[in-house]
Write a structure and sequence with these properties.
Oligomer: single chain
CATH architecture: 3-Layer(aba) Sandwich
Keywords: Arsenical resistance
Pfam family, one: LMWPc
Shape: globular
Largest sheet: 4 strands, parallel
CATH class: Alpha Beta
Order of helices and strands: EHEHEHEH
GO biological process, one term: response to arsenic-containing substance
InterPro entries: Ptyr_pPase (IPR023485), Ptyr_pPase_sf (IPR036196)
Protein name: ArsR family transcriptional regulator
Length: 138
């Protein structure tokens, strides 16, 4: 199972969205987690609503900080905003990626819908590429 960690500044919008979407698309092959450098008190309600509209399970999503993953190793660490990139690069992993989004603590419903769709497209591409790399063509 490939372990993927999504890191953003607040763990309120982008990283929990990414965690939920990867679990939704490929929980049988990926162990997804998310953290924030400075976690917000709660996950943004509009982000949760945007996920619910797509029938994505958000049960178990909650704000977490870097301390929650201390001494853990990940196959892939993905930074989702510039403010979190340095902290994300310091987390032990085989691969690092930077997908920069505007990690606002609170966003409008149209903004949340847009971010969910943008992250969904990147998650689909990540899964496709990873799956292709793991399967031999011969």
């Amino acid at each position: 199972m490939t372990r993927v960690l999504f890191v953003c500044h607040s763990n309120a919008v982008c990283s929990p969205i990414a965690e939920a979407l990867l679990r939704h698309l490929a929980a049988d092959r990926y162990d997804a987690a998310s953290v924030g450098v400075v976690p917000a008190p709660a996950i943004d309600a509009n982000a949760l609503a945007a996920l619910h509209r797509l029938h994505v399970d958000t049960q178990g999503l909650h704000n977490k900080g870097l301390d929650s993953i201390a001494d853990q190793y990940f196959d892939i660490v993905i930074s989702l905003c510039e403010q979190a990139e340095d902290a994300a690069r310091a987390i032990p992993a085989d691969r690092f990626m930077a997908w920069h989004f505007d990690d606002a603590h609170c966003c409008s419903q149209p903004e949340a819908n847009k971010v969910v769709h943008e992250i969904y497209e990147r998650i689909k591409l990540l899964v496709l590429v990873q799956d292709r790399q793991e399967k031999s063509l011969w």
